[in-house]
Amino acid sequence: MRNRNVLNMRKALPCMSWSPKNLYNLWKRTAGPQASELTFKHTTQATLFQQRWKSKAAVRAYHGDYIPEKSFKRWYLPDNIPDVRPKRRVLNDDKLDLEEFAKRKVKERIREEKLEEEIEEKGMAPVGSLMFSEVERRIDTVVFRACFTHSIYEARRLVIHGYVKLNGKKHMNANTRLAPGDMVSVDPRAIRFLRERAPPPPPPPPPAKEGEENENSEASESVKAEETNEVIKPTKPSSKNALTPCHIPDYASPWLFVPAYLEVSYATCSAVYVRHPTARPGYSEIPTPYDADGALIRYAWEWYVQRRPRARSQSKINKAPEDRVLSLLKDVHPDKRMKFLGPELRLLEPPVVNLESASQAS
């Protein structure tokens, strides 16, 4: 975690937490007095670099601030960062057949006009937010998105301390990225809002007068003597039909939602990662406190596009966090496996040797 005091009401940015201080920080940065700091206009004194830096800092404070920046750029950025706006196709200069080129140019212009009309009606899908899809696959993020913990930091602590199971087995690596179909279970005894609250302390007795002090002291001594001679009886176990206590913290309602790519069962305290998050026109399945198609996400996207890591070598791939998709692909036949792996991930594949050609060469 980069900043120890993540809920500082003066400097901190919104993060994944149900704390009232975080809710106040979110209001202050989006609709409060400091909303202008993250609202970018065409005419401003800030440079383009400063606007991208502020956008990157605000977005990363919510999406995995506990992940170091170097690790985030190396392992948690998708291989192909989606473009926030589609690029227009540039036609090659066909000098041999000018008539065919003219026809294609007219068709291309008609297609662009239809595309612009469709964009105005439906809007473009906010694909810029999909650059955080790898962070949403983390097991600690899934535990928090399923509303089992008060913050992402508590979800990370539960995973590390062994209170979370992955597909029925204890899993203590919080950096694991899930595959579609994985089930995450949390120990109900570790969920804070499912515990019974302690009874409030009794109110202090009223001050006694001078004449009543002796009588109260004698009465308290007699009560203590009776308690020492009294036999403690075992309490009866609660009935099976008793309801499970549930005490949601105050000001937590804005954070109580479940994304569409999760299937949660609160009766068993488990969640299934159904599929990877997607985006469609006007809607993004990745929860974010900012506009998924706004200038802030676009500037953050531009920042990471210019600073993408180099091609991963074999030594760096061996140090990568656990990815359940790759571990499941190892059980697939090599001929089918190559269709799913990218060019960088194919370095994991061992070389295939043809025994017939090797015997003929010898």
UniProtKB/TrEMBL annotation:
Biased region (Pro residues) positions are: 199-208
Q: What's in the keyword line of the UniProt record?
A: Ribonucleoprotein, Ribosomal protein, RNA-binding, rRNA-binding
PROSITE patterns with a match to the protein in the record: RIBOSOMAL_S4 (PS00632), S4 (PS50889)
RNA-binding listed as a keyword = yes
Q: Which GO terms describe its molecular function?
A: rRNA binding; structural constituent of ribosome
GO aspect biological process, one term: ribosomal small subunit biogenesis
The residues forming a coiled coil are none
What highest taxon heads this organism's lineage? Eukaryota
CDD domains attached to this UniProt entry:
S4
Pfam families reported for this sequence: S4
InterPro entries attached to this UniProt entry:
Ribosomal_uS4 (IPR022801), Ribosomal_uS4_CS (IPR018079), S4_RNA-bd (IPR002942), S4_RNA-bd_sf (IPR036986)
Gene Ontology cellular component list: mitochondrial small ribosomal subunit
List every stretch annotated Disordered. 195-244
List each copy of the RNA-binding S4 domain by range: 137-195
The family classification in the record reads: Belongs to the universal ribosomal protein uS4 family.
Entry-linked PANTHER family: 30S 40S RIBOSOMAL PROTEIN, SMALL RIBOSOMAL SUBUNIT PROTEIN US4M
Protein name, please?
RNA-binding S4 domain-containing protein
